[in-house]
Amino acid sequence: MRYRLFGRTGLRVSELLLGTMTLRSEDLARRVVGTYADAGGNFLDTASAYGESEEVLGAVLTRRDRFVLATKYALSRDAADPNAGGNHRKNLVLSLEQSLRRLRTDYVDVLWVHLWDRHTPVEETMRALDDVVRAGKVLYVGVSDAPAWFVARANALAEWRDWTAFAGLQVPYNLLERDVERELLPMASALGLTVAAWAPLAAGKLSGGTQRSGPLSEREEGGARAVRAVAEELGATPAQVALAWVRASGALPLVGARTPEQVLDCLGEVVLPPEAVARLEAAAPFERGFPADFIAECEPAAFGDGLVVR
């Protein structure tokens, strides 16, 4: 297993992140986490909204300090309580305390904002996150499923006011779902954020798994067929190829393995040759749209022969 730095910090995280939302049995969770840890994996991702699975993870986490333990807050803890959900300070404090009890720990390494809340001022969220970092209950913070402008503004405020900035961004990303390439991935690259890609196997569509529901579209089938072909040529599994494509973009795949066998299927340091990356992307066409494609088209005329290419 190889490791990367988490955002602009010194924290080392494995190139394969493990999501634990589907773990419901302590015996199974112990085997899944053990298989992942034996391979060198060190990042475990959960959330306050995952309920039972967060408790199960806490029960089996015997080597706590060897892991980068991440949880999330924002989703409602009680649908009847208007303050039991959202990005505000009250929900942050109560959700975090609940997660710490379930996980049987006095701190988490990463606390993600689970979902953007348009009703809570960004200043309140960032100051509240900084407070729990300064209290020692959280070491690093990240954000999931939010607009690029919100993340950029949040980190600008954090920099100006000496608060803790987001170090990571969690978004859905795979060969078949590439919307985040329009705004979110360029923003993350510019700000130095680590991207954790959830659903990197497109709910089993790219691995041949059983999670998918209904027939594949023509584009999806084309992408899945290309993944299988490249896997056969490289002597790898389709899952390994699909995850290698995510890593080639600079993102880290976050896999929700349900069994030790699924963990093993995702392991392997497959590196895709440029030709294979091009074949995969051609099999599942994607257009970034305006403004990215328009700017790329206009750059030669706009900036002349002196255009700098990175």
Low-confidence stretches: none
Strand order of the largest sheet: 3-4-5-6-7-8-9-10
Order of helices and strands: EEEHEHEHEHEHEHEHHEHHH
Beta strands, count: 10
Specify the biggest β-sheet: 8 strands, parallel, barrel
Query: Could you name the CATH topology?
Result: TIM Barrel
Q: What's the domain count?
A: 1
Task: Assign the CATH superfamily.
Answer: NADP-dependent oxidoreductase domain
* Global morphology: globular
The rounded distance between the terminal residues' Cα atoms is: 29 Å
DSSP helix fraction: 40-55%
Percentage of residues in strands? 15-25%
Radius of gyration: 20 Å
How does this model look, in words?
By secondary structure, the protein is α/β, with parallel strands linked by helices. The protein is 42% helix and 15% strand. It is built from eleven helices and ten strands. The strands form two sheets. An eight-stranded parallel barrel has the order 3-4-5-6-7-8-9-10, surrounded by five helices. A two-stranded antiparallel ribbon has the order 1-2. β3 (17-19), α1 (26-38) and β4 form a beta-alpha-beta unit. α7 packs across α8 (238-248). It is globular and about 50 Å long. The two termini are 29 Å apart. The mean pLDDT is 95.
